[in-house]
Amino acid sequence: MKVIGITGGIGCGKSAVLNYLEENGGYVVEADKLAHRLMRKGEDTYNKIIDTFGTDILNDEGEIDRVVFREVVFSDQNALKKLNVIVHPAVKDYIKQDIKHKRDSLKYNYYFIEAALLIQDGYKSICDEIWYIYADVETRLDRLVSGRGGKKEFYQNVIANQANDNYYRDNSDVVIDNSGDISITQNVLKVLLNKIN
Q1: Which of 6, 86, 127, 190 holds its CA 20 to 30 A away from the CA of 110?
Q2: pTM
């Protein structure tokens, strides 16, 4: 079973790529979604967050109120660092264990890990390959404004604060241009999956 990291900036079309990979026999883990799962009531990560940030971030059901918590961590760099120290290792440990289970099950040929900070968070040591999903900036901005709404300037700032194209290229094994129609990207993915098989 090959372990492949999927990364790229906001608006590059990672979701469409992941859907195709999942539909074609790949097992997909999205680090952000997994982090939210590990932050639910009863999980070790949840307990560590409460120990660090207190109970003011909880809703009436005792779950972490994501809107309230987002305000706490994104208004204070120190708080964000504390959160990352708790969550990132927990996500990585879970993924390592999950890879072992999936490998033992002999059910999948490939295991895909998607994370915006895949390279920065040291997932290269876990992955056999890193695939960078690329799209030019104008395409990304068009997708974001039409898909999520909001102003172009907001997304320009988000893109400016993410790693640049050269960084992704220098740290990836495969670059997949997803600037055009998704069917073109799917053909490229099909070739890559066939190579693995």
Answers
A1: 86
A2: 0.88
